[in-house]
């Protein structure tokens, strides 16, 4: 194994899901829903398969999906995109991230990212031969904000790109407009590219709204925006994602993408196109359900004795088990499946500064109500 990939031989999701299986635990570790997306989307995929849509689709994605993504970008945010050059369908957001980084980051150049960071960011920057520069989130009440001094320090002459994830995994933070404006200011000042991972764009709670970084002054022409059907339509196994942005940046990601997977899976693409056009009401309803589940799990964790952080969006809530006498989140998560039959993920898996984040644990609430209730009952045995 090459040196640059040595830190990345396993993922925390695979490790914790294996532990969950081994101990027959409820898996609140890996973030995936345990119910299906909209029925008409599932039917559209079956129709596509039965209709013979089973050979290589175009590398950039089927026309119906590229058009549906462009319409989505216009309807929700006012972007005006050419479906043939400014939309690229990818194998999930995961390939969008790797394609964008491999296409845009020269070896030795730096990528600024928020810490904690989604695990694939570090691995993909390493694949590209780049160097990560992390900017920590810092507690602000029961939520998190960016460390502004660290943000300014992270940008420099060697910066190639900033990779921004909001809503944020693992904390469930939606970056404030002020934090986004500061990122935009620095990105323009240093004349670099932004890559935004907005896979949870339709899963915001308590009346919050998604504000894409690409809409800020000077940003549309330098931002690649990434999203995925996985979260919007609860189909994480379909692996249908996309990148949108200026044609030359999309082309850079496309150059890498065509040698990562060549093309994405065929029959799921028209089904996702159908869902983007007709099932955004389902997505809004799903977000309301997730908000309710968030509250149920957060209250259960608090009643057990965890110190619970505010989750503003997405699938996850972070909690601190120190009041329960556990100082190390990693150890806590490795013991939890055997101890009470629940799996969670340590936030330390998403950071370089292990010490500062050692205590925090992430729980997924994208589960059926009975599953959350069962997990809550089990956690009361702690
Ligand atoms: N980015 C973030 C922040 C995520 O949470 C996830 C999935 N959990 C991904 C990217 C990957 O998305 P996909 O499953 O579409 O590859
Ligand atoms: N994104 C999901 C999570 O954060 C899992 C994705 C994966 O298993 N790589 O839990």
TrEMBL record:
It comes from the Bacteria. One of its GO terms (molecular function) is pyridoxal phosphate binding. Coiled coil: none annotated. InterPro entries: Aminotransferase_I/II_large (IPR004839), Kynurenine-oxoglutarate_AT (IPR051326), PyrdxlP-dep_Trfase (IPR015424), PyrdxlP-dep_Trfase_major (IPR015421), PyrdxlP-dep_Trfase_small (IPR015422). GO terms for cellular component: cytoplasm. Gene3D superfamilies: Aspartate Aminotransferase, domain 1, Type I PLP-dependent aspartate aminotransferase-like (Major domain). Residues 24-364 form the Aminotransferase class I/classII large domain. Keywords: Aminotransferase, Pyridoxal phosphate, Transferase. Its cofactor is pyridoxal 5'-phosphate. This is Class I/II aminotransferase. It comes from Gordonia neofelifaecis NRRL B-59395. The lineage of its organism: Bacteria, Bacillati, Actinomycetota, Actinomycetes, Mycobacteriales.
């Amino acid at each position: 194994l090459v040196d640059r990939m040595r830190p990345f031989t396993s993922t925390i999701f695979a490790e914790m899901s294996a532990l969950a299986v081994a101990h027959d635990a409820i898996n609140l570790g890996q973030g995936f829903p345990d119910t299906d997306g909209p029925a008409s989307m599932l039917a559209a995929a079956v129709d596509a398969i039965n209709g013979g849509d089973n050979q290589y689709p175009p590398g950039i994605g089927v026309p119906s999906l590229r058009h549906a993504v462009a319409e989505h970008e216009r309807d929700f945010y006012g972007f005006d995109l050419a479906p043939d050059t400014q939309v690229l369908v990818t194998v999930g957001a995961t390939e969008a991230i790797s394609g964008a980084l491999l296409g845009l980051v020269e070896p030795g150049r730096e990528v600024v990212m928020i810490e904690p960071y989604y695990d694939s960011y570090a691995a993909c920057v390493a694949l590209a031969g780049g160097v990560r520069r992390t900017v920590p989130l810092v507690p602000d009440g029961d939520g998190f904000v960016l460390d502004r001094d660290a943000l300014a320090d992270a940008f420099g002459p060697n910066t190639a790109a900033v990779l921004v994830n909001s809503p944020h995994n693992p904390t469930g933070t939606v970056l404030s407009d002020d934090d986004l404006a500061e990122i935009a200011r620095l990105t323009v000042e240093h004349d670099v590219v932004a890559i935004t991972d907005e896979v949870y764009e339709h899963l915001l709670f308590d009346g919050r709204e998604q504000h894409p970084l690409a809409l800020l002054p000077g940003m549309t022409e330098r931002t690649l925006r990434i999203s995925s059907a996985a979260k919007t339509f609860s189909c994480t196994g379909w692996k249908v994602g996309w990148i949108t942005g200026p044609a030359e940046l999309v082309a850079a990601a496309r150059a890498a993408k065509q040698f990562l997977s060549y093309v994405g899976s065929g029959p799921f693409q028209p089904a996702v196109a159908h869902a983007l056009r007709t099932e955004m009401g389902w997505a809004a309803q799903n977000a309301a359900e997730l908000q309710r589940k968030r509250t149920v799990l957060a209250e259960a964790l608090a009643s057990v004795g965890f110190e619970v952080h505010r989750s503003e969006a997405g699938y996850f809530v972070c909690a601190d088990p120190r009041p329960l006498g556990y100082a190390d989140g990693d150890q806590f998560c490795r013991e939890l499946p055997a101890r009470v039959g629940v799996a969670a993920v340590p936030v330390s898996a998403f950071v370089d500064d292990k010490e500062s984040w050692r205590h925090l644990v992430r729980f997924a609430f994208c589960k059926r109500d009975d599953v959350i209730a069962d997990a809550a009952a089990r956690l009361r045995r702690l």
